[in-house]
Specification:
mainly beta; 18 strands; single chain; eight-stranded mixed beta sheet
Length: about 200
């Protein structure tokens, strides 16, 4: 690729096995192909990864303080965006995992933002801070968040969204409902026995 600023440099990758895209190393690993790395890239704006519906996709960010935007775009497809890195589009994904750092090593202060589509959507987040968290949007590819993330944001966009959230004592979570259409957005906190304190904000 070159230094084009209009996303014109596209790498199309069709897998033969489960795939890991390592943004920090500029490499693509395919479990179905011998050797490592399978692809090294430079100057690429967009990477389109096509799987077979059963093979898995793992996207790893960098060792820096990344903000990782994840947008499930369909029942088996998703897009990942990290500043100054290629946009990753995955289709026909089996299990989808996002590592906010590189290689499962917690080196930076990473935030993961899960973006929902416009419309009335139902979000769920469950798991424990020391393992993968599973984020679901009904009708969309589920997102496994590796334990390297320091903060999580759920963005509902336009529509009347419902959120089911299990709070964490160690990972801050921000829920952004967006603009409701006619009713309202609903946040359901799923907690064990204890006290929940509500502190209303400015809006």
């Amino acid at each position: 690729g070159d230094d084009s600023a209009n996303l014109s440099n596209v790498l199309n990758f069709t897998s033969t096995g489960s795939v890991t895209v390592e943004l920090g190393n500029r490499e693509i690993e395919d479990a179905g192909v011998a050797g490592t790395p399978d692809v090294t890239y430079l100057g690429i704006d967009v990477i389109n990864v096509t799987l077979d519906g059963t093979d898995n996709l793992r996207v790893e960010a960098t060792a820096g303080d990344d903000t990782v935007r994840v947008r499930p775009t369909g029942a088996s497809s998703a897009t990942v965006e990290v500043a100054n890195q290629p946009i990753i589009n995955g289709t026909l994904i089996g299990v989808f995992t996002v590592d906010a750092d590189l290689g499962g090593v917690d080196t930076g202060n990473a935030t993961v933002i899960i973006e929902g589509p416009a419309g009335d959507d139902s979000f769920g987040i469950a798991g424990t801070p020391v393992t993968d968290l599973l984020v679901t949007i009904v009708g969309r590819e589920a997102v496994n968040l590796a334990a390297t993330r320091e903060a999580i944001t759920l963005e509902g966009a336009a529509g009347n969204d419902t959120f089911f959230v299990t709070p964490s004592a160690t990972v801050p979570m921000l829920v952004v409902g967006g603009d409701p259409i006619s009713a309202s957005d609903v946040l359901n906190l799923e907690v064990a026995a204890g006290t929940v304190t509500f502190n209303p904000g400015p809006e």
